[in-house]
Amino acid sequence: MRATFRNLFHTFNVAAFFRARHDHAVSVARWTVMLVPMAIAVGSLCAAFLWSLDVATRTRFAHPWLLFLLPLGGFAIGLLYHWMGKSVEGGNNLIVEQIHEPGGGIPLRMAPLIFIGTVATHLFGGSAGREGTAVQLGGSLASAAGRQFSLDSAGVRVLLMAGIAAGFGAVFGTPLAGAVFALEVLAVGRVEYAALVPCLVAGIVGDWTCHLWGIHHGAYHIDYLAGTAGELLVDPLLLIKAAIAGVVFGLAGLAFAEANHSLGGLFKRLVPYRPLRPVIGGSTSIPPVLPFCPP
């Protein structure tokens, strides 16, 4: 009798083991089917974005007079967002909100709007970084993929973070930094360990895809030797300097974020009509035209 119970227990144990392995394999296959195509799409879009950005920058340098059209370009971009982009006006903040509390999702129109807006801004000499574009391109495509697969809130959050990792890794050529950015920067103080592998895979696939399209990033070489060959030495003075610099950079970033938030709110109250805001900003960015003075 005891042997019979032992055999039954062993049988159920083996069945449970194989059932768990089967469920794990199905989950891995499902996430692979979602992640890889999404990361390829994000990497391809980022490749097109970087190529367009390069063309716009070279065109502006070849035709310096384009700088004087910055207010007009700003008005066109502001009008485009006013007509079609009210639902995505939150930009990066909208994506962060959806990561923390998934709700209505991120409209797919965010991708073409931020694509056109950033390229046009560079064409007319405006100031626009690439990190925000990378986050919004990856987040909007990931949100669209999440809707196609009918994911729950936890799945949508992981897929959004993976999309951001793919976009960041592709735009800057840094898949590991993209994964860390998606895991930690958007959720300060904690790490979403369930998204660790998806973010890393998405970052690598996005970066590889961008390279396959023939887009290359700048290579930076640092001539610093910590010790002799085969040794791993750490300079205490360098660590102290890096720690102090980290504190200073953090405080500067905090001051900038708070000032940006406060001044942005004040500017919105003073200029309620959205398309007019980039016109004012673009007008103040144009240098004065000096009279020609022969030598």
Brief digest:
The protein is mainly α.
Structure description:
This protein has helices at about 1-60, 70-85, 90-100, 110-125, 130-150, 155-170, 175-185, 195-210, 235-270, 275-285. The chain has about 300 residues and is an all-alpha fold. Helix 2 runs antiparallel to helix 10 and helix 4 (about 110-125) runs antiparallel to helix 5.
List keywords for this structure.
disordered C terminus, single chain, 295 residues, mainly alpha
Percentage of residues in DSSP E strands: under 5%
Number of helices: 10
Largest sheet: none
Overall geometry comes to globular
Helix content: over 70%
Instruction: Please count the beta strands (DSSP E, at least 2 residues each).
Output: 0
Ends apart, CA distance between termini: 111 Å
**Helical/strand content category:** mainly alpha
Mean pLDDT value: 79
Order of helices and strands: HHHHHHHHHH
* Rg (CA only): 25 Å
- Poorly predicted sequence stretches spanning 5 or more consecutive residues: 289-295
List strands and helices in order, with pairings.
Blueprint: H1 2-62, H2 70-84, H3 92-100, H4 110-123, H5 131-148, H6 153-172, H7 175-185, H8 196-212, H9 236-270, H10 276-285
